[in-house]
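Record passed on here:
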Amino acid sequence: MIPFRIIALLILAIGLACGPAHADRRVALVIGNSAYKSAPKLGNPVNDATLVGGMFKKAGFDSVDVRLDLSASEMRRMLREFAGRTRDADMAVIYYAGHGIELEGTNYLIPIDATLETDGDVLDETIPVERALFAVEPAKQLRLIILDACRDNPFSKSMKRTLASRAIGRGLAKVEPTSPNTMIAFAAKAGSTASDGDSRNSPFAVALVEHLPKPGLDLRKAFGFVRDDVLRSTGNKQEPFVYGSLGGDDVPLVSAKPAATGPQANPQDSIRRDYELALQLATRDGWEAFLAQYPEGFYANLAKGQMNKIAAEETRASAEQKANAAEQQKARLIAERAQKAEQDKAAAAAKAAEEARIAAEKQKQIEQARTEAAEHQRKLAEAAAAKAQAEKQAAEKAKAELAAKQAAERASAEAGAKPAADRQLPQAGTEKVAALSSAPASTLSAADLAKSLQSELRRVGCLSAAADGDWNAATQRSLTLFNKYAGTQFDAKLASVDALDALKAKPGRVCPLVCNFGFKADGDQCAKITCRAGYHVGDDNECEKVPERKPPPTARDEPRRRDQDRKDAESAAPKSQASGQMICNNAGCRPVAKGCRLGTTKLNIGSSVTTEVCN
């Protein structure tokens, strides 16, 4: 009997231990293809895959496999192995960056060793997207495919068509998943191409890393924020799109953190201290260590600016060294009386090196100005945050003091009215409950709370009207805008302390700056658009050339105009079958009637007119 009880306890313990291990298990496969052998190398897919893979690791995924520059056989093997890991997973995600192609409505992912000399090679040398869908299908709660593969494809332009009518689309084709709880996200909607951007990462990858790992944020809303960011950064030229559907419950990539109880330390304080330490070191190693610890957020952006400044200084120093070496080479050749061609070549190299040094010096100055401006904004933001924290603490202190004072007054009143309370216990108890329920929840009046909210809405750029304490329709629209861009869900019809705290926590502008016609955004202000001579502001709010206007006709031009009209009418009017002649006056021209001819009638004033003479 004892061995049986021990075995039963062991089985129960193993079951309890294994239960949490399999709960909410998340796995991800990240592929980035850049080094194509039969097409120009892509700059960003490898960088994007590394960035997105780091995001999944930071989000706490149980398994994250990042693979770069895969051949066809390697891609098939990775998808096969990943399908095995998804069998016991609740959430499975595949991210692919690289070239893709659409052939007759079917999408294919292109490995780096594909040649695609003909359209028939697509079936043999590429991986259909359906293979990736098959790999994530065993996941229980969410199956997500993210395709950053909508770039302008060089293979589709060079490959030969074995059938003239065979369609090869631009970008990728629309896909509607058949499995439930499956989503496919494209960097650009069907039939359009995506941009790699001008920086290290594509706009789509940057937006993904910004919004997908937000705790508790539903994926549908997260991809909506991704769409807004990409549209904004590409000037509305690229619109990401999501296909598939989920159920009614929120499905976040990262679960919401449990609400903290009691006073909590501000996590930004430790980040700020580390940032200031890296700022004192002012070395590349220091900033790289900081970014490895804090790859996202306000201070991460400042650190990237400092890295740009260091890179500009290194480029300037290298250019200066090359310029000095070129000058020395030029002087040596002159001293050795080398041939004129060699001297000219050395002089040209010295000139080019000097120009590169000057350009590097200018870039260094630009990065220096940017970092100084960013540091200034950081100090302003920290000062504003400190002020907001102090105001919040003062409000909480005043609230606590008022609550203590009211409690003391109630205790004193209850002590004085104790005999009456003994005689009328039910009534006294009712009055006590009513007194407790009527205690104010905030030290601010409704008007003061509304005015404070309006002031904060103006500070973050969501309200343009004055803060007058009137919670009107304009103020409600401004709070709705704040909800949209800050990802909050406050009731816009009511002024609340929670909304005020959320606004005070924002260090700078939240709502985008919108300027009237004839003005454009310049930092946090709208500047009037000034056009050069001969240009004015057109309907698209851009300067365009003023069209030339012909002057109105004068009295001197009237006879010439009438003569031209008569000639035009004569050339346009049909000829008379009788005489082929026309008669004209101020009313216009007409054919001479059959049997009539043109005649001349003299006037008394010494002139004559042409008339129609009929027999």
Summary: The longest helix spans residues 340-416. Residues 277 and 380 are 19 Å apart (CA to CA).
